[in-house]
Specification:
Elements lengths: L25 H11 L7 H5 L4 E5 L2 E4 L4 E4 L2 H4 L8 H11 L11 H13 L4 E7 L2 H16 L3 E5 L8 H4 L17 E4 L18 H15 L4 E6 L15 H12 L2 E6 L22 E4 L10 E6 L19 H16 L2 H22 L3 E7 L2 E6 L10 H13 L2 E2 L6 E4 L7 H23 L1
Parallel strand pairs: 3-13, 5-6, 5-7, 7-8, 8-9
Antiparallel strand pairs: 1-2, 2-3, 4-10, 9-10, 11-12, 12-14
Amino acid sequence: MGTYNPAPYQLDLNQWPHIVCPPPGPKSKALHERCCTYFKGLSGQVKLFPVAFEEGSGCTLTDVDGNRYIDFSSGIYVTTLGHCHPKISAAVQEYAGKLMNCHDFTTEIKTRLVEKMAQCLPGDLKGYQFYDCGTAAVEAGMRVCRAVTGKHEFVSCFYDFHGKTSAAVSLAHIRSAVYGPTRVPGSHMVPRPNPYRPHWTKPDGTIDTDKYIEFYTEYLDRATANQVAAFVVEPIQGWGGSVMPPDDFFPKLRQLCDDHGILLFADEVLTSMGRTGKILCLEHWGVQPDVVTLGKGFGNGFPVTAVAVREKYMESFESISASSSYGGNPMASAAALACFEVIEEEGLLDHAAELEEIFTRRMAAWKDRFRMVGDVRCKGCLMGVELVKDKATKEPFDKAGTLVYQKAFRKGLAWIPAGHILRMSPPIIMPNEVAHKAMDIIEEALGETERELLG
């Protein structure tokens, strides 16, 4: 395992960030208008701040007007190892000029990737298949669970997010008429422990994880057809606002699944590949999933995702029509293998833990300083700040969230909005000094917004 060296990623903080014209600038506006003549269905973050980016390097982005930003989004949790990492770019370029696609025929680079995964993934996760997006991996994982158990029902959690195809949407919170008037039959949702907004608490006011497990037990008995194949869950909720579980939740959930003959399916598309300081987030709690999905940082921007299953279940891939047109193509395999190697060679898991200490200290101070900061949470380089109108009532403060997001972006911080919850996912290569600079920008935006809205 290597040791982190900040030198390749260091910035002159007198030059980064650097705003030459108020963003979004005239070139961004013109290019965005041209594109939107034909391109529709943009994300909320683009609608709130429609800049047009031109290039990225390490933990920085530059827009078409020449404005330079610190990246605190990683392309929404994707470029975990920074933009255009030389080793990853070179790996993709090699196979772009050598062999782009040969369906699912064996290649040396794919073989090296699966061997590396067998070394790096915890426990006995030894069976793999590859896809080109997180949703496809989640759907394939669901098919694996059906094949292993012979059952068809799934349980997931309120505010989780698992994708946008019909079965994946049925596991999630999204409501839209285009997905149909009902969820896919056999889809069940239950509350999950949120320490800041718990459903059940102990007499001392702390969250009561046992009550959640008791509810799940009764729900399985009374609300399902006793055909539950898997409990599907994000280790840390992304779309839901970087919500961290209590430390005892996943060990207890693992036991519940074992007691009822249910597979534990961890959707780690967002949380894997060092984002939280581990290859898999569930490693923080010593829990072994039966099925896991990897994505986003798995290819650091190249569209490649994976399903991994325990060795005893790997033959189930044979019965689910597991192959895909783009999954595991040589370029994708090269990108994913390079990501594993970069994490090892540069000591980035340890550095993500070091950044967690910085972020946790800074955000804890915000909670004390600002009236509208109700809760802060951090695991590795995955963070959330929840803004409220009143700390006693915890009423969400959406307007504050929008203003803080826009003010920080104008100061040169590219990041993620989520209503009243500010979401942050900086690259795990970020030097400590740059991390402090980014937090300074958010702190300024919080102060300006609080004075504007609360006086």
